[in-house]
Amino acid sequence: MFAVSLGDDGSGLHPLEPWQAEEFLAHMDRGREFIGQHIGLADAVTDLESSRSFLRSYADKAAADTGRIYGIRTADGTLVGGVLFRTMDVPNGTAEAGCWLEPAAAGRGLVTRASRVIIDWAVEERGIHRVEWLVSSENTPSIAVARRLGMTKDGVLRESFPHRGKRLDREVWSVLAPEWRAWRKDKPATSGSGTSGPARP
């Protein structure tokens, strides 16, 4: 078992695996309504079997090198959120990143710090050239994360995402590898912001 520190507050980034399905479901139950406002994860993970199936799908993606998932834990080990690469196309150098968080853990910069770790890894270790961030136009906290990560808004996919009976606009944000390296050079990690070099989740 390994972890990547996310800063002096004791938080860390940890792998999420199928054997943790019960804990993952309990985490989802705690934050279901908050998490489910803008993304389908809360509606996909509703019982132990669906929790195990979801985590198994990412274990399969990791084995095929087409996706990854990591949990964000507080200093006491509580699972409070996560970040992922929903897709990874290493041959073509593209990946789509995403995130979720319990309401009790919001406002601490955890998602930004965790996203920074996995984007560093994707760009510096895996040679990913373009990292995308697809987000509902109504999800202002996630849009704020994209901005804090130095991403550029590429455009809006109008009513492209059906969610809980509505069709939502989805914004496409992205950062290219040279842009990421320049942004990282201008914004080196500081205390509470994780490691300064490329991380290896």
UniProtKB/TrEMBL annotation:
Family annotation (SUPFAM superfamilies): Acyl-CoA N-acyltransferases (Nat)
Domain N-acetyltransferase span(s) in chain numbering: 11-173
GO molecular function: protein N-terminal-serine acetyltransferase activity; protein-N-terminal-alanine acetyltransferase activity
UniProt cross-references to InterPro entries, sorted A to Z: Acyl_CoA_acyltransferase (IPR016181), GNAT_dom (IPR000182), Ribosomal_N-acetyltransferase (IPR051908)
Cellular component terms (Gene Ontology): cytoplasm
Gene3D superfamilies per record: 3.40.630.30
Assigned keywords, A-Z: Transferase
PANTHER family referenced in this protein's UniProt entry, alphabetically: ACETYLTRANSFERASE, RIBOSOMAL-PROTEIN-SERINE ACETYLTRANSFERASE
Protein name, as recorded: GCN5 family acetyltransferase
Source species: Streptomyces abyssalis
